[in-house]
């Protein structure tokens, strides 16, 4: 009886592994998915990623559709390898004001791996030392004429302002 139970257990285990192996989990990467689709499909996919109020999201995507029309390999690889970008955009909707002013600049940043890394991480490195804000769950970031982001150090703030002035986002 003991051998039968062990045999039955092993049979069920192997059968379940066999069934699991038969299930296809192939999903195309972002470039394959977007390359065969038209711009409206890309915009619809991005609507799911960027979760804002319906009116704000529709306004942004409608006015910046050309940002996502590129078939450039670098653009798709950079978006795929840097999912933090969507977190930064989702948590800081005020960045869309800068993107709206100069969408081509934003495409240039997305296409350059080094600039994209600086865009994502440099202005926001102070988050690791601060607690997240209360309320809607995002860190509070104030933008004024003197500094783009509140920073934990003057050196970091100066670097951020210099970087964004160089890219033409700030004057």
In short:
The chain has 171 residues and is an all-alpha fold.
Distance between the termini: 82 Å
Number of domains: 1
Strand content: under 5%
What's the helix-strand series?
A: HHHHHHHHHH
> Sheet with the most strands?
none
The helix count comes to 10
Average pLDDT level: 61
* Count of extended strands: 0
Q: How much helix is in the residues?
A: 55-70%
Q: Rg from C-alpha positions?
A: 23 Å
Structural class: mainly alpha
Which descriptor suits the 3D outline?
Answer: elongated
Poorly predicted runs are 125-154
GO molecular function: damaged DNA binding
Keywords: Signal
What keywords describe this structure?
mainly alpha; elongated; single chain; 171 residues; 0% strand
What does this structure look like?
- The chain has 171 residues and is mainly α.
- The protein has one domain (25-166).
- Helices cover 60% and strands 0% of the residues.
- It has helices spanning 2-22, 30-35, 39-49, 54-63, 73-81, 84-91, 95-101, 103-111, 113-121, 154-166.
- The chain is elongated, with a radius of gyration of 23 Å.
- The N and C termini lie far apart (82 Å).
- The model is unreliable at 125-154 (pLDDT under 50).
SSE blueprint and pairings:
Elements lengths: L1 H21 L7 H6 L3 H11 L4 H10 L9 H9 L2 H8 L3 H7 L1 H9 L1 H9 L32 H13 L5
Helix pairs in contact: 7-8
């Amino acid at each position: 009886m003991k051998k039968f139970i062990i045999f039955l257990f092993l049979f069920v285990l192997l059968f379940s592994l066999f069934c699991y192996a038969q299930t296809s989990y192939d999903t195309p990467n972002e470039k394959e998915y977007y390359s065969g689709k038209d711009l409206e499909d890309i915009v619809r996919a991005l609507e799911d990623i960027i979760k804002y109020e319906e009116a704000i999201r529709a306004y942004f995507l409608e006015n910046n559709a050309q940002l996502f029309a590129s078939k450039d390999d670098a653009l798709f690889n950079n978006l795929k390898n840097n999912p933090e970008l969507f977190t930064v955009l989702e948590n800081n909707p005020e960045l869309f004001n800068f993107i709206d002013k100069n969408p081509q600049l934003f495409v240039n940043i997305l296409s350059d791996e080094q600039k994209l890394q600086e865009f994502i991480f440099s202005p926001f490195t102070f988050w690791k030392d601060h607690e997240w804000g209360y309320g809607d769950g995002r860190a509070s970031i104030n933008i004024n004429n003197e500094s783009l982001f509140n920073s934990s150090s003057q050196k970091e703030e100066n670097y951020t302002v210099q970087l964004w002035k160089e890219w033409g986002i700030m004057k």
